[in-house]
Amino acid sequence: MFGFVINKLKNRKWLNLCLLMGVALFIALFVCHSMFEKGAGNQILDRLFTDHATQQNEFPAQMSREGTYAVADYPDSQSVLDKLSGYEQKWIEYVDINKVSSQQLITLPGGRADTEFGGPNNYFTIGYLPGLSEYADVVKSQTDEKKSDTSENLDETQENNENTSTDTGTYECCISEKTMDHYGLVAGEKIYLHVPDGSGKKKITFVISQICREKDINDPYWAKTLSDMGDVIFVSQDVFDEMMQYYSEDNISYSDFLMLDYTQINTENASLYDGYMEQFKDADKLYNDNIRDTLERFFIQQKTIKLMLWALELPCLVLLILFIRMISVQILSLEQNDILVLRSRGATKLQVFILYLQQSGIIAFAGCVLGIVLGYIMCRAAASTDGFLRFTAKDISTYKFVWQMLVYAVAAAVIMVLFITVPVWKKSKDAISERSSRGRISKKKPLWEKCFIDVILLALSAYLLYNYNKQKSTLAISVLENRSIDPVMILDNSLFIFAAALLCVRLTGLIILLVDRLFKKHFSPAMYASFLQLKRTRYNQGFLAVFLIMTVAGGIFDANMARTMNSNMEQRIVYNVGCDAIYNEDFRLRIQYNKNGSVNWMYDEPDFGKYESLKNEGICDGVTRVLEDERVDISAGSGSVSDAYLMAINTKEFGETAKLQSDQNDDINDAYWFNYLNELAKEPDGVIISSNLAKDLGLKVGDSLNYSRYVPEAVDEDQIYASENVKVCAIVKGFPGYERYTYETDADKNVTEQEKYLIVANYATVVEKFGMTPYSVWMNLSKGKTVDDIVGYLGGENSENSDSTADNLTDTQSEKVQSEIYRNITSAQQLIDENKNSATVQITNGMFTLSFILSLIVCSVGFLLYWVMTLKQRELQFGIYRAMGMRMREVKAMLLNEQIFLSFLPLLAGAGIGITATAMFVRLISIIYLPQKHNIGVNVYIYPSDMLELTGVLFVAVAVCYVVISRLLKSMKIAQALRLGEDS
């Protein structure tokens, strides 16, 4: 039996190879889903942890416990530390992740303290930090010897503490730089601490032996930085134990932070670990962590990713099913005689079914093996995209082989076996009844055409589109709140394409009947035969038309959707940044508290010359200061607004540096934005304002307004220190760096939309009226230069950390300087790259690219195969036509006419439907990727290159098909064809 099946496969090897290709691609797409889902999930997790570290300025995987212990139960520091270590061991026992670092701090409540030079009534806490000597540097010490040498480290201080005579009541301690600055302390100064000893107060003297700061404040160890620890004076463990004997306090305070390797948290264990941490919290009210919030956001995004993957894969899976059905139907049609022979020789339906079940099982098994390998390659290729049809060599290490791929492969193989084999049961009819019906062409209307399924589906798609468009704002907010998206919103375009394809098949049949009725009397014999064939087979041929339309329309929509998404994202990022790169300078704020209660403050401006030298070095074409303030009150007449956004600029420098692309400007403003800068340059006391501000306050060009600014928040949150009356010289809808719409999230994680008002003033006037306040440095890179060139220059010989040349910096120091510069710089290109590498965008680009490529392959192979097989089936018919005297030229004309109605018209219809779907659905689906309202609306992009690629491939397929048909016709032997007819 098995050998018989193998021979059957060999007899139609080309058809079975095409079927194998379709099955392998179907299984590969199924397999690709699980790998893509896991890889994207791991990528999201890594991104969420990294973003948390950046936004919250803390290590993103901390487990912590803070509280107090009774001194009676824990009489010394080591017993407390052992207890804390026990908690850490218990946490790691369940959450099986490598420990990165641990920070344990124990403190005793201090009290009022007098300082030797600073006066009385200060408050200090005594603390012991075990890792202080390892993770902190001494910046100043009590001794004057070797002031630049910090070889006297914190361990030596602790040794000195241990050898200090307790009779004197004087102990050495260490304080942080913040404590030094806050109290004006110096190394060697004494602190007199009054502590309760049960019988009253006892004075203990501490001498500041060292002042320290973190070696690397970004080290995971510093869950709490020295600044966060407050006014703690650090002592050795022995001194701390001795201090415990003096206190009459019942409790000792502690904090324990355990930092874990978050890269070991993945999609496989995230849910398990989240459950354990939830149990920790329920069992211990003092327990806390910052991991569960990240995992909560991950679970929401993971659900979205799953829905998106299925929604994006489904149209391609349907296309592959159509392709497989088309081939399997052709195979069954050709093997109809074999089935009749088997049935006439006594084979039962079940036996015939089992025979073809084995045949399809062999194909499915081979497709399963190929599909797993192909799915792995397809997933890696899709993950490497950073745009539509743009493959890169970026890191895709999170996309690995997962065991679920085998399960998906088996499931897909079973589906394919059933899909291919089930129609055989219907074909296995009684030999006599089957023979009597052979040769008949079905003239029965399909069910979908009788019931107007195409019209119903089209109406349903239109209703869904209308409904979703009415809910755009709500849908956008739900995306911003990280709620799950509705997959039907993505699938609606596929429903529209399918319904429109069916409608086009209906209309094509009517067009054929209309043309036949109008011109039947004028047809040549060949044309008459052609239309007769079209009328007889129009129901059977509709499948090919639907296949072609969905392929072309889907390919066009995928290409346009991906291009629109990527282009709009890039445009918005470039607009939001406003230039190539922005460096946020560090301004030192000096505050002086006067005896009369007043406060004086001022900012120290850094050296701006080093940025101007970037132009001389050819790194930048433009550099400018941009003073920004988002706490500005504006009033005009009886109206006022608060929290407006002030930009103070040098108009000439700003015009050379900032960017507002011409197509963006045309979409936003009424005139080119340089005209507004020219108006501002003419008016030293003039301002440019946003159109929403002008509307809300009833302002127009030439009117006056008053704006006020607040003192720094470190001085006072609500104190206005200066105001200025200015004249409106221009009104704009968009301006480089100005985002009109902002979004705020409340404690319940509800997102609200707010509008921001813009006011742009002259930099010199603002500094003159309000004094120097922090500004950012905007830079326009020269051609061929990148942010790395800026960082290399500022972190090298021009660095403030070097005395004269870059040689004065060690490699470690240079890396720290450059790392700090990278943290302070915002690059438009860097943001674009990060956006392209986000999981959602990557999945979309990858799946659209795969769908487009698969559409081209499947369409080309399916189209060619269908027509070749159709020609083979009509060999007898063509032989009769040739025997009746029809010329070969007329036979070709007949086939060309059929191709026009059955291939060319569907291809044109597919292109039209694809473009129509683009216009109808792209802006709606863009909400998933661009949920924020923006100064720049969503523009639909259709790249001619994509259309040319699709058209070129289809043209080649049609041309090859026509050439193959012509050669087959030439090689056809009339006598042999007629003899075949007699034998049948």
From TrEMBL:
| Domain ABC3 transporter permease C-terminal, residue spans | 317-427, 852-972
**What are the TM regions of this chain, as residue ranges?**
14-36, 307-332, 353-383, 403-426, 447-466, 495-519, 539-557, 846-868, 900-930, 950-969
The UniProt keyword set, sorted, is: Cell membrane, Membrane, Transmembrane, Transmembrane helix
Q: Any keyword Mitochondrion?
A: no
Instruction: Classify the source by domain of life.
Output: Bacteria
Would the keyword Hydrolase turn up in this protein's UniProt record?
no
Regarding protein family, the annotation reads: Belongs to the ABC-4 integral membrane protein family.
Name this protein carries in UniProt: ABC transporter permease
The source organism is Agathobacter rectalis
Q: What is the lineage of its organism?
A: Bacteria, Bacillati, Bacillota, Clostridia, Lachnospirales
